Automatic annotation (TrEMBL):
Keyword DNA-binding (UniProt): yes
CDD domains: PBP1_LacI_sugar_binding-like, WHTH_GntR
Organism: Rarispira pelagica
Domain of life where this protein originates: Bacteria
Pfam families to which the protein is assigned, alphabetical: GntR (PF00392), Peripla_BP_3 (PF13377)
The protein's name in its UniProt record: GntR family transcriptional regulator
Alphabetical list of SUPFAM superfamilies matching this protein: Periplasmic binding protein-like I, Winged helix' DNA-binding domain
Keywords: DNA-binding, Transcription, Transcription regulation
Residues of the HTH gntR-type domain: 8-76
Coiled-coil stretches noted in the UniProt entry, renumbered to this chain: none
Length: 369
């Protein structure tokens, strides 16, 4: 089994810059890129770092080194045009396909479109396979799909039956924002790209520092209490515990626009809850309409923050303070990890942490005493 170090070292940063210049056409197929020395001066790093970056790109199929001459741009050929990369999507998420213009679909929409664009750019077959989350058996149509697949990218919680099948058949698979089960870390070719939830600590500390001592963890009924929900909940809870006594929080589940939740929300505010942390942006933005139905406003009566930074967050009134996730970059990182798995013949697993950052806007104010 091979365990890989994170792919975000300095030479990877250089490789990503070069790959971006190749993909945008600065360096076209057949072009010779600058020498190692020239690139080391350009990026302000030592030649050894640049040499590792170009070797990495060569292993991915973007460069072809020629001894004594230099490196030339090539078309990635790791993925056969006869064997595509397919995205597995759980049935619950697949309902988003019916209307990708709904605000609740924005996060998934960016992921799906980024994936399809990358497949198109690579000229590799791709598409979606919908699976049942609780499936105990593998359907025959998936077995057929797997026979012609170079690899899979998974959006959602994959059933154990599917993971077991993929491991047994040594099919490269990358999970987006889901951890690899421990029992499979020494088997097959599996990877995961996890969204970094740690900036939640910064947001929670920010709210408390603004005088908000009673916080709600918000969940819209459009979403389930999955492992991501629980992990973020744990971060919120532990961060608040660090402030000691006098700081409290509660979970508030609601249905957006439902008048039945107006009184519940009013009661929470009456109990001293002055701010909310959304499981995601949709769970945060839904509170805007609920506050309006209560005759209150954001952030004067209730401050709120989210997670994802979907398009609607910046256009909301007021704009939502949130944690930015580069969803296009997230998909590219997943495909990058898949490329590594495809090159490996033996057992290996990779877990990558995808960086996120806090975006401060105007949905939080100092709590009035």
């Amino acid at each position: 089994m091979k365990n890989y170090e994170p792919l975000d070292k300095k030479y990877i940063e250089i490789a990503e810059k070069l790959k971006g210049e190749i993909l945008t056409g600065k360096y076209k197929e057949g072009d010779k890129i600058p020498t190692i020395r020239e690139l080391s001066l350009l990026y302000g790093v030592n030649p050894q770092t640049v040499n590792k970056a170009t070797a990495y790109l060569a292993s991915m199929g973007y460069l072809q080194p020629r001894q004594g001459i230099g490196s030339f741009v090539t078309r990635p050929s790791l993925l056969s045009k006869n064997h595509g990369i397919w995205m597995l999507v759980d049935k619950n998420r697949s309902r988003l396909f019916s209307n990708l213009n709904e605000v609740s679909s924005y996060h998934a929409k960016d992921i799906y479109l980024s994936y399809l664009l990358e497949m198109n750019q690579r000229d590799v077959p791709g598409g979606f396979f919908i699976y049942e989350e609780g499936a105990s058996k593998i359907p025959e149509d998936f077995r057929e799909k797997a026979r012609s697949a170079e690899g899979f990218i998974v959006q959602g919680s994959l059933p154990d039956s599917y993971i077991s099948f993929l491991v047994e058949n040594n099919i490269p698979t990358v999970l987006i924002n889901r951890r690899i089960p421990d029992k499979y870390k020494n088997k097959g070719r599996l990877g995961s790209v996890l969204i970094d939830n740690k900036p939640l600590e910064q947001l929670v500390n920010y709210l408390v520092s603004m005088g908000h001592k009673r916080l709600l963890y918000l969940l819209s009924s459009e979403f389930e209490e999955n492992e991501v929900f629980k992990e973020r909940l744990s971060i919120v809870r532990k961060t608040l515990e660090g402030w000691g006594e006098g700081v409290h929080f509660d979970i508030f589940k609601y249905h957006p626009g439902d008048p039945d939740y107006v009184e519940s929300f009013k009661k929470k505010i009456g109990d001293g809850f002055s701010a909310g942390v959304g499981y995601n942006d949709i769970s945060a933005l839904g509170i805007y309409s609920l506050a309006h139905m209560c005759g209150m406003s954001i952030p004067e009566n209730f401050s709120v923050v989210g997670f994802d930074d979907i398009m609607a967050s910046s256009s909301a009134v007021p704009p939502l303070t949130t944690i930015r996730v580069d969803r296009g970059g997230l998909v590219l990182k997943a495909i990058e990890v898949l490329d590594v798995l495809i090159r490996e013949n033996g057992n290996c697993y990779i877990e990558e942490l995808f960086p996120t950052s806090v975006v401060f806007r105007r949905s939080v104010v100092v709590r009035a005493l």
